[in-house]
Automatic annotation (TrEMBL):
Keywords: Membrane, Signal, TPR repeat, Transmembrane, Transmembrane helix. Residues 185-228 form the Cytochrome c-552/4 domain. It comes from the Bacteria. This is TPR domain protein. Residues 321-352 form the Doubled CXXCH motif domain. Gene3D superfamilies: Flavocytochrome C3, Chain A, Tetratricopeptide repeat domain. The keyword Nucleotide-binding does not apply. TPR repeats lie at residues 658-691. Signal peptide: none annotated. It comes from Metapseudomonas furukawaii. The chain crosses the membrane at residues 15-34. The lineage of its organism: Bacteria, Pseudomonadati, Pseudomonadota, Gammaproteobacteria, Pseudomonadales.
Length: 765
């Protein structure tokens, strides 16, 4: 493995370990599948341990695979990451000043290199050398060198079409204290970008020195990024002929649709890495934990709300279910579409009603001329006449990058208006009245046929706490053919509707064939039963064949460490060790150190907790959850003055942080100063009125300070915004009962029964 420049390229958006219970944002663009392999090699003597597969010079691939290598040249994969030089840098570095949103920068050349003069960490202008270039179209980003082997993605990018500098994320990262500032960890490319934009990448962070010593096999997404290290393949070829794909962990030429998708998903998914370095597992979730269809990332119907890199939308599509793969439409080496225009879709959706692509299930296809105005009702050659216009609506990310949704949805403006989702018709004709558009659509196509109950309509009931919510949830979980990623998403909703039936549904999916479903079922079971009741249900998954599932089970069984796990003790120790290793591999991140502190506290290693918390703050002083955790640790250990000083210092630096105001309220409450705590909670709500946790805390403080009616009105307003908030509902029931408002209590209980007739709270009434 070669070690290029002393510094190495980063990613763009924050990667917060999901393992720490936080949302993890993946880096920009493409990732790599660098799977190791444990396939036996004929070059290994009998009984000897096979050597791990190694990355080789990519030029070795071209000797036998000349056409594929030729196709790859100039592709977006090949150009994903390059050294900054005259051939790769397309932006204007002619010493012209640029000012965008008050940020003054100057791009110039010196001694044959490219430089940016811009305010540094101290707020004063300084010169930073451009080390690498990310991407080629429609924009380029530039990675700047900083001390300690750090590479940072600069906040301005180059728009190739307009030939101008622009800000991909307007309004973010203006001040050095802003988490999105280009010098902050959120924009560190070593952790955020490189693994997807290079081949064989290893972050190489040294926690003792705080430096990166990053390595990679080659820049860009090369052959071994998808096929895996090739050393064993070359060994096979030296000893045996005719074995095209021997020596690789996954034979992509013969891989099934799941293995094929998971190869691409290693980069084209929002996911949390479970280690540092090239992936070693055969399955995606041996190396990453993909995100489910969370409300932050996806709309109710599964369309991407944020940039999710296409795995999530495609994994839930009917296309994927019918056997379509990424490589069905995209040339895996060129990266472009195999067929342009509507011809791509017409291979299956045609007047014959027959799929012309091997491996695609054509059952259910209708014989129809989809390329005719009688179907799409738009002029040929214009917007609306292309299949992707209506069935793959585009959303703009990073300011100028239009990306088509790969869920292959059917437009339905009436349903979109009802559910509050986006729609192709409403998006293209935003200037027109939505109800009139919906009526026109109905006249053209009639009532859109749909299976009942629909996933998006059910999810609307579930997340909005509407009557029939739990029934809709169980109906969806009982339906056949539900995509695994949707099932995993629904399992995460079960704890909001607790019952024996909910627990049974979650426990049933602990044996689901899809690892993403099993991992989500582990979380649901843990939320539905107390720790002492988890062992029999979750302990068997400590030996699950997939690492992410083992880790999830071990984490949820932490509470049983003191009482013992019987025959499962050894399996638990191994699995919790895997969890710790996953976090240790990301010690450059404040979030990982915070999660380690939480692990050590739960695992009885109290002497290691404070050190991890202080390391988290050191890694990123702007990561306020770590600051709060340290304050609370000090307070819990009778070091109130020290914790108080630390919190006041944080508040002085972040006076508009609702999180810190709320933490202040908790601390004051613990000290018995209820009036001051109530004021602090009120300040948190004022700064972040949409935060349900802050609102709930404020209501409880009002109640405890004798303001019963004010507390009830606060909770009523919260339930108006979030009817599914069971905790707030139960508190309001208790408060109105205390106030003698029995009719209001009965009304709230009636609503709860409509939401979830099996709720155990109803049996107590």
């Amino acid at each position: 493995m070669s070690k290029p420049h002393p510094t190495n390229p980063p990613g763009r958006r924050p990667i917060v370990p999901v393992l720490a219970g936080l949302l993890l944002l993946a880096g920009l663009g493409l990732w790599l599948y660098l799977a190791g392999t444990d396939a036996p090699s004929k070059a290994v003597a009998p009984g000897a341990e096979p050597q791990p597969a190694r990355f080789v010079d990519e030029a070795a691939c071209a000797g036998c695979h000349g056409q594929q290598a030729k196709d790859w040249q100039g592709s977006h994969h090949q150009l994903a990451l390059r050294v900054a030089d005259d051939t790769s840098v397309l932006a204007d570095f002619d010493d012209a000043p640029v000012q965008i949103e008050g940020q003054a920068s100057r791009f110039f050349r010196r001694d044959g290199a490219f430089w940016v003069n811009t305010p540094g960490e101290d707020g004063k202008p300084a010169d930073f050398r451009v080390a690498y270039v990310i991407g080629v179209a429609p924009l380029q980003q530039y990675l700047l060198e900083l001390p300690g082997g750090r590479l940072q993605a600069f906040s301005l990018a180059w728009d190739l079409e307009r030939g101008a500098w622009f800000k991909p994320y307007p309004g973010q990262g203006m001040e050095i204290h802003d988490p999105e500032h280009w010098m902050r960890p959120q924009q560190n490319a070593n952790a955020q970008c490189m693994d997807c934009h290079s081949t064989g990448f290893q972050r190489g962070f040294d926690p003792a020195s705080g430096r990166f010593d990053s390595h990679w096999s080659s820049l860009g997404v090369g052959c071994q990024a998808c096929h895996g290290p090739a050393s064993r393949h070359l060994q096979w070829l030296e000893n045996t002929s005719g074995l095209r794909n021997a020596g690789f962990a996954v034979d992509l030429a013969r891989a099934d649709r799941i293995a094929s998708l998971e190869t691409c998903a290693r980069c084209h998914a929002r996911r949390t890495p479970l280690g540092d370095g090239p992936p070693q597992g055969r399955r995606l979730m041996d190396d990453y934990l993909p995100s489910t269809l969370t409300r932050e990332l996806y709309e109710l119907d599964g369309k991407a709300r944020e940039d999710v890199y296409q795995y999530g939308p495609f994994a839930q599509s009917r296309m994927f279910a019918k056997g379509v793969r990424c490589s069905t439409c995209h040339d895996p080496h060129r990266g472009n579409l195999k067929v342009t225009g509507n011809g791509l879709c017409l291979q299956c959706h045609n007047p014959e009603g027959k799929a012309r692509i091997a491996g695609v299930d054509g059952q259910g296809l209708k014989a129809k001329d989809y390329d005719s105005p009688t179907h799409h009702h738009h002029r040929p050659g214009q917007a609306g006449a292309q299949c992707i216009d209506c069935h793959m609506p585009a959303r703009r990310f990073m300011g100028i990058d239009n990306r088509h949704d790969h869920g292959f949805s059917l437009p339905d403006p009436a349903r979109a208006l009802r559910l509050g989702t986006t729609d192709a018709c409403l998006g293209c004709h935003a200037e027109r009245n939505g109800d009139l558009l919906a009526e026109q659509f109905r006249r053209w196509y009639g009532e859109v046929p749909s299976a009942a109950p629909r996933y998006d309509e059910s999810l609307w009931l579930i997340r909005n706490g509407r009557p029939g919510a739990s029934r809709a949830l169980f109906q969806q979980l009982a339906s056949e053919g539900l995509p695994a990623i949707r099932r995993a998403t629904l399992l995460a909703e079960l704890p909001h509707y607790p019952s024996e039936r909910a627990l049974a549904a979650a426990a049933r999916d602990l044996n689901h064939p899809a690892p993403l479903v099993r991992e989500s079922a582990v979380r649901a079971v843990a939320a539905l039963v107390p720790p002492e009741q988890r062992r029999n249900l979750l302990a068997p998954l400590l030996s699950d064949p997939i690492r992410a599932v083992r880790i999830g089970a071990a984490r949820e069984l932490l509470g049983l460490r003191a009482t013992g796990l019987g025959n499962y003790e050894s399996a638990w120790s191994e699995a919790i060790g895997e969890y710790e290793a996953a976090l240790l591999s990301q010690q450059d991140r404040a979030e990982a150190n915070l999660a380690l502190a939480q692990l050590y506290q739960a695992n009885g290693r109290a002497d290691a907790v404070e050190g991890r918390l202080r390391t988290a703050v050191q890694r990123d002083p702007e990561h306020l959850p770590a600051q709060v955790a340290l304050v609370q640790w000090l307070d819990n250990n009778y070091r109130w003055d020290e914790g108080r000083a630390l919190l006041e210092q944080a508040l002085a630096g972040h006076p508009r942080s609702a999180l810190l105001r709320h933490a202040n309220g908790v601390m004051l409450l613990r000290r018995g100063d209820l009036p001051a705590a109530t004021r602090a909670f009120a300040e948190a709500v004022e700064l972040e009125p949409s935060n349900k946790v802050y609102d709930y805390s404020y209501a409880v403080a009002l109640h405890d300070s004798g303001q019963l009616e004010a507390a009830c009105h606060r909770l009523e307003a919260l339930l108006e915004r979030d009817p599914a908030n069971r905790e707030a509902r139960l508190a309001l029931i208790s408060y109105w009962r205390e106030a003698g408002q029995i009719q209001k209590v009965q009304a709230l209980l009636a609503e709860l029964e409509q939401q979830n007739p099996d709720d155990p709270e109803l049996r107590r009434e």
